[in-house]
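FORM 7B: Structural annotation worksheet

SECTION A. Query
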Amino acid sequence: MHKVGKGILGGEHREIFGMRIVLASESESRKRALEILGLKYEVQPSAIDERAIRDPDPVVLTRRLAEAKAWAVVRSLHGAEAAAAAPGGWASGRVSGEEPAVVVAGDAVVAKERRIFEKPRSYEEAMAFLHELSGSALRFVTSLVVIRTDTQKVLSTVEFASIRFRELVEREIRDYVMRYPVLQFAGAFEGDGVLRFAESVSGSFNFMTGVPVSRLAVFLREQGVAV
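SECTION B. Predicted structure
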């Protein structure tokens, strides 16, 4: 079933009820973002080497990582045909054949002054992260990329939450690290950690799901998903 409406940029877009949505991540937080919107989706991790993509600017880094994840899944869905559009010299155009799908990818980091905190590689590093973030002002930076496979239209954004942690004590850090899958979280914390540790928060609510849910809804609608 199709429905024609106006896009956020003023042009027409065609909504397709039941369009295939592919999440390029196994993140439970990003799954929750789609579940909040009441959407059915499938998971297809990108399996890129995230450590191979580096940049000292957290905005550039998260955007590059989210784009790389999204295009890796687009390529896996449509093979050589999709190689006409990905970054790095690929040409734009439509991919014919299969039913259209929308690929959703995101990335998140925590930034404190000039340091970037990605996912910790051990529980010891997770505890060290939280000790360093204790009593500090930080930014939770998230990128969202949504690509429609047949038109290869890309929508993306970077959003920020400004957070200040109160002074944390060893016992609560250890308790949090023991009870949560902190190795999956940028900076070793997620929404519950913000609720527990923060004394002030402003800006985006991106830390709750790893992507900005409200903007995700707008992007999916612009790509033709009935949201």
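SECTION C. Observations
The beta strands are 2-6, 12-16, 20-23, 42-43, 101-112, 115-117, 137-148, 154-165, 198-203. The chain has one domain: 2-222.

SECTION D. Sign-off
Analyst initials: ____
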